[in-house]
Amino acid sequence: MNATTNTGGGPALPRGARRRMRTRTALLDAAEGLMAAKPHDAVRIDDIAEAADVSVGSVYVHFGSKDGIAVAVAERVAERATGYLTAAFDASTSPLEQVAAAGTAYMQFLLDNPVFVRYLATEPADGAAGAVEQVVSTRIEALRAAFQSRIEDAVHCGEAGPVDARLLAHFLFGAWNGVAALTLRRDAAALDRADAQACLQQARHIVVTGLAATTRTATDEGSP
What we know:
Layout (H helix, E strand, L loop, with lengths): L14 H23 L7 H8 L3 H8 L2 H23 L6 H18 L1 H7 L6 H30 L8 H18 L10 H30 L2
Helix pairs in contact: 1-2, 1-4, 1-6, 2-3, 3-4, 4-5, 4-7, 5-7, 5-8, 5-9, 7-8
């Protein structure tokens, strides 16, 4: 038979479709690992196929070209980024707590997904690099805007003092991206994962206590 029943009692995909999905996933995993380790131009289709233990032709069947698989990897990783921050924006917590949790979640995402960090460090270009840049920049802007709205909520409810939420969100995302990029370096400026996480913890403390302190300052200044 070409189809089976899944554990939930419903019809499963035909065997051929399941095999194609496994091949596609193996190719994406292989490409992501290689593209996290070196620039796009240095990754060959042969390398991807070998790492996935499939034929070179499978890359073309599933993605059309190396550019196609590069964009598919970017889209998959961008979806992960949304998942990390969506979990941090827990409606049962206060806006300032969500700001703190989102900072931790985003930095953890960057450390867990070095290919995304490499994308951020790549200059926009034509072809695949340009298409990947579009995927990454669009997702980053959406996440930054959501983060900005939490800062605004914290200000409006009195948890944080009067700050420019847009500029603060840009600054923090830029800082997190920069720290994560240092983990890709191989010189004296490099940070290992543990140091990057320590930077995050210090930054989180400074940001949260700083925002709360501006509230106290504003209250004190308004007192008779």
